[in-house]
Amino acid sequence: MSAKPKIAFQGELGAYSHQACRVARPDHDPVPCRTFEDAIQACRSGETELAMLPVENSTYGRVADIHTLLPRSGLHIIDEAFVRVHINLLGVPGTTIETVERAMSHTVLLGQCRNFLAKHDIHRVTGADTAGSAKIVSETGDPALAALAGDLAAEIYGLDVLARHIEDEGNNTTRFLVMSRAADMSRRGAHGMLTTFVFQTRNIPAALYKAMGGFATNGVNMTKLESYMVGGSFEASQFYADIEGHPEDEGVRLAFEELDYFTDMLEILGTYPRDPRRD
C-alpha cells in the first residue's frame, strides 16, 4: 500500500484531469472515478485527501454541472491548475495514419479536431471520455481504430502517437480546481490571491447592479461572473464569481459587506493562490 496522499479525479487513468493531478499534485497518488460526484464523494468520505475538478475550458467555456455541484460539494477550493489540452492521434503499435479509418474520443475533443479528421478522411466515433477511448483502442488492437487523447494516455495504454497536436485551436486550455475538505485561508500567494463565491440576489430592482457596485468602488477586480438557474426556476438565478484578493483585504471585506446587503445567499467556495499560468 502506498503511503502517499491521494487525489480523486473523474475519468480513466490518462485523462486530462489525471494530467492536472500530475501538474498540481505530483506527490499524490491519482484515484480515477466514474463521475464528478464520485470524485467529490471520495474526498468527502476521506478516501482521498483532495479532488481535482475541471471548471472551464478556453474554447468551450464552463464545464457542465460543475457550478451547481461545487456549492453542494461540502469541499473548499485550495488551488487552481491549468492544463494545455494537446490532442494526439493514438493507435496500436505499428499502425500508420493511412491505416486509420475511425477515431474515438469524447465528443468535445472530436469537435476540436475537425480539420485534421476531414483532411485524412477519418470518421468520428463518440466515446465516453478521452482516456477511456485510448483504453478501448488498446484492448481491441484494431489498427483501423484510433483514439484522440493526450501523451499520458499513450504512455499508460501502450499506444503509438501517430500525429501530435492536431487540435484546430492553438491555445486550448482547461482550468481545474483543487478541492479539499478543509479551507486554507492562511496563505498569501506570490502572484496574488483569488476568491471564488456563489450568491443569489434579492428580488428587488437592479439588485445585481447594486451588488456589483461595491467591487468597483473598492477597487476589487472581478475576473469571472456567470449566472445559472437553480431549482428548475426561470426566475431564481444564482451567480458564480471569481475576484482577485483575499476576504481579509480591506477592499474585499467592504465589497462583501455591500454584496451581503443585496443578496439572499452568499457562500465563499475558496480563497487560494493565483496560478501564474493563467497569464
UniProtKB/TrEMBL annotation:
E.C. number(s) listed in UniProt: 4.2.1.51
Enzymatic class: lyase
UniProt organism field: Litorisediminicola beolgyonensis
Reaction(s) this enzyme catalyzes, per UniProt: prephenate + H(+) = 3-phenylpyruvate + CO2 + H2O
Keyword vocabulary terms for this entry: Amino-acid biosynthesis, Aromatic amino acid biosynthesis, Lyase, Phenylalanine biosynthesis
Keyword Lyase among UniProt keywords: yes
Name this protein carries in UniProt: prephenate dehydratase
Taxonomy, superkingdom: Bacteria
Spans traversing the lipid bilayer: none
Residue ranges of domain Prephenate dehydratase in the record: 6-181
A GO term, aspect molecular function: prephenate dehydratase activity
One protein family per Pfam: PDT
Record's keyword annotation contains Lyase: yes
Location of the ACT domain: 196-273
PANTHER family linked to this entry: PREPHENATE DEHYDRATASE P PROTEIN (PTHR21022), PREPHENATE DEHYDRATASE-RELATED (PTHR21022:SF19)
InterPro entries: ACT-like_dom_sf (IPR045865), ACT_dom (IPR002912), Preph_deHydtase (IPR001086), Preph_deHydtase_CS (IPR018528)
Signal sequence extent: none
Pathway noted in the entry: Amino-acid biosynthesis; L-phenylalanine biosynthesis; phenylpyruvate from prephenate: step 1/1
